[in-house]
Structures are given as structure tokens and as C-alpha cells.
Amino acid sequence: MAYGDLPGHMSMAFRAAMDRVHAKLAELGYGDVRPAHGFVFQLLSHTNGSTAVEIAAHLGVTKQAATQLLAELETKGYIRREGHPLDRRARLVSLTERGWHCVSAVVNEWRAIEDDWAALVGAERLDVVRDAVCAIVADASSKGQVTMKPLW
Description:
The structure is a single chain. By secondary structure, the chain is mainly alpha-helical. The protein has a single domain (6-142), classed as Orthogonal Bundle (Arc Repressor Mutant, subunit A), CATH 1.10.10. The protein has helices at residues 6-27, 35-44, 52-59, 63-75, 97-121, 123-142, and strands spanning 79-83, 91-95. A two-stranded antiparallel ribbon has the order 1-2. Helix 1 packs across helix 5, helix 3 crosses helix 4 (63-75) and helix 5 crosses helix 6 (123-142). It comes from Actinorhabdospora filicis.
């Protein structure tokens, strides 16, 4: 790999992992999940619920676009929207049991991917990669918030 190719190769490794995750989800009956849904799931799995405004900010889209995505996820049974306990104008979005099962399937597949990578390059080498990526993310975070969100 030539100098300067690493960011592109990291992107391709991520894409290969995402393709594998979505193939596994389809196999498990979650074939209606799109990559954009995963970014909503990622946020909701780390909060006690979020509003459409918070989800829009996380995704880097308008509230209207987030609301449309949430309507799709609600129709598919992955999320529920309920009255917000502190703000009557807002609705609190949270994962349903189906949503949590999908998140669990993703976590399990991420772990399987890491296991396969360790078998491919060796656990110690993968630990070095993990440490390096964590340092890169920490550095980027120190310069502003870094979230896992789609590149639209």
C-alpha cells in the first residue's frame, strides 16, 4: 500500500465489515434494515431515548428527514415514539424488543468480524491496530465531536 492510501483502505475495511453485517442481518430476518438505520440504532442503544431533534443532529440531517426515517423504523417495528416525560411538545424515541434484538445481532457480528481479523493477522497485530485507531479517534474527538454517522 502506498503512502496516503491508508484512509481509503480503512474505509474499504469498514465497508466490507458493514456489508458482512447487513448480510448477517438479512439471514436473521432483519433484511429491511438499511445502513442509515444502524446509525439511529447506535445512538438509541447508548441513551435512554432520544428526540427527533437529537437524532437529526446525530445523523447530520434535518428534523424532517429524521422524522421520515423514524416513521419508517416505527412501521417496521424497530422503534417506538412516546410522549416525552419532561417536554409535552417532544416525543421520546426508543428501541423496541425487535430493535434491541437487531442491535444484539449487530454486536455479535462485529465481534465475529474482530475474531476473524485476529485469525487473519494475529491477535497481537490486531491489538496494535485497535490501539492506533483509538488514538486517531481520540485525537479527532479532542478537536470536535466525532460520532458514528453516515456520510450523505
